[in-house]
Amino acid sequence: MARFEGTENYVATEDLRVAVNAAVALERPLLVKGEPGTGKTMLAIEIAKSLGCPLLEWHIKSTTKAAQGLYEYDAVARLRDSQLGDDRVHDISNYIRRGKLWQAFTSEERPILLIDEIDKADIEFPNDLLQELDRMEFHVYETGETITAKQRPIVIITSNNEKELPDAFLRRCFFHYIAFPDEETMKDIVEVHFPDIKPRLVSEAMKAFFQLREAPGLKKKPSTSELLDWLKLLVVEDIDPETIREKEPNKLLPPLYGALLKTEQDVELLQRLAFMARRESRTQ
Predict the structure, then answer these.
(1) Rounded to whole angstroms, how far apart are CA atoms 139 and 149?
(2) Residue 218 in contact with residue 230, Cβ under 8 Å?
(3) Cα separation values, 9 from 42, 123, 161, Å
């Protein structure tokens, strides 16, 4: 099978490429962690594009149960149809809705299965999937059939580290942490998304962005996706690089900072730091 080398829309570091290809070779789920906005979900989409595989996305919520990934039996609909005398009630399979694992197992082509933000679900959710991901099969009790994978899907699992995952689950995964991009990698990412952007604007914006991330006490540091949103706004509003570069204490908050800061606590924190810096500058 072809190897993942990144795509024209996704800058993959060497260690990330190694992790993806190792997980594919070992036929183990790839568990990807990292700060929100570092491209974990996008990774699965780009792997599918790169390898030419169909993509199945299972986005996990706090109410999601593992069994929903296999199938759901709609007993209420069957009861209603039986009361209406519908002939469909004689075939129970009419009331079984296939989940993402079922779809992945029966896919004609080897698919990419994304299980996105697994840490949002109940703590037992990962353990409830262990057997199915190990054996690549499951039993449908209502019909008595066993669904076995035609080929093992490439499973990408993302986590934002909101809660610890069980050891038994971790042992079955190949793990990779997407570190926050350094400045060189970030420049490559920006170039992919804004090939014609002015270099001086990028340079000043990057300096301001990384300085902002280093501010002590931030509740939510701005991420890669927020930097890209901010750059788009700077271009649309035709912000001069000099405006971003201003170093006066009262300019601690960059222009259009609402694209970077997402909590009122962080805005208040930086305003407070700016106030303290102004006071210090007056006493010097």
Answers:
(1) 12
(2) no
(3) 10, 34, 26
Residue 33: exposed, middle, or buried by beta-carbon count in 10 A (0-12, 13-18, 19+)? middle
Distance, in Å, from the CA atom of 250 to the CA atom of 274, rounded to the nearest integer, reads 5
Mean pLDDT over the full length of the chain: 89
pLDDT digits (tens, 9 = 90+) for 196-222: 999 999 999 999 999 889 888 888 899
CA distance 247 to 277: 11
Rounded CA gap, 136 and 196, in Å?
Answer: 47
Q: What is the dihedral of CA 15, 18, 24, 28, to 10 degrees?
A: -50
Encoded tokens for 167: 């050891």
For residue range 143-156, what is the model confidence (pLDDT) as tens digits? 999 999 999 999 99
